[in-house]
Amino acid sequence: MSNQQYFVNYLCMGKIQTYTYGKKVYQSAIEKQPVEGSVFLSKVGLRGDEQAYEYHGGENKALCLYPYDYYDYWRDSFSNMVEFALFGENLTVSGLTEDKSHIGDIFSFGEAIIQVSEPRNPCYKLAAKYEVPNLIVRVRNTGYTGFLFRVLKEGMVSANDPITLIEEHPQKVTVAMVNDLKFHDRFNPEKMERVMAVNELSESMKKALKEQFDSGKKNGWG
């Protein structure tokens, strides 16, 4: 058992709002604000946090983490950069990056127990938030996507609670490896087999990777 701890810079939640980007009108809860005190973390996320669309939430996407380590990297890219929930994440955490996190890793967070389920998929709303049209491609190319958790045990959590690794997944398939298969090394059979063998990877991600691999096409991921 490990007791590796990671500092939580911010714990954030948001409400659905309507935005306009070019000719597109859309809804999003990407403008999240820091939580004061404790909040209940359920199987589907923080109580009071909202998602505009079904595929942004659910049990395999209950909590979104983005590493604080990348904030300085993006600082010169945005004229309107915020200092919390940079990419609409719930958790901004120092030191817990995609290359250090494995699909299936289990952490304690306050009273809750959470498990890494899949990488975060960057969408056009990031580009819209900062008015940087090529932002999605840049996020994919860097691999600085962040990642998602499912909740194994519900409970109260706060920004004062560290994220503590309690069980590292034995297959050691990093979030970074899944991103590489998803966006770059798309048709590597050995990597595909290794990633798909991880039971804890979300079924929706497995389905998308398999469809991409079988089609021989990029399937819209760039």
How would you characterize the overall build of this protein?
- With 222 residues, the protein is an alpha+beta fold.
- The chain has one domain (5-171): PK beta-barrel domain-like (M1 Pyruvate Kinase, Domain 3, Beta Barrel).
- Helix content is 23%, strand content 27%.
- It has helices at residues 71-75, 124-130, 135-142, 175-183, 189-196, 203-215, and strands at residues 5-6, 8-13, 17-21, 24-28, 33-34, 39-42, 45-46, 63-67, 91-93, 106-109, 112-119, 147-153, 155-157, 163-167.
- The strands form 3 sheets. The protein has a 9-stranded mixed β-sheet with strand order 1-14-10-11-12-8-9-2-5.
List the helices and strands and how they pair.
Layout: E1 5-6, E2 8-13, E3 17-21, E4 24-28, E5 33-34, E6 39-42, E7 45-46, E8 63-67, H1 71-75, E9 91-93, E10 106-109, E11 112-119, H2 124-130, H3 135-142, E12 147-153, E13 155-157, E14 163-167, H4 175-183, H5 189-196, H6 203-215
Parallel strand pairs: 8-9
Antiparallel strand pairs: 1-14, 2-5, 2-9, 3-4, 6-7, 6-13, 8-12, 10-11, 10-14, 11-12
Uncertain runs: none
N-to-C span: 39 Å
User: Structural class, from secondary structure content?
Assistant: alpha+beta
Query: How many domains would you count in the coordinates?
Result: 1
- Supply the CATH architecture: Beta Barrel
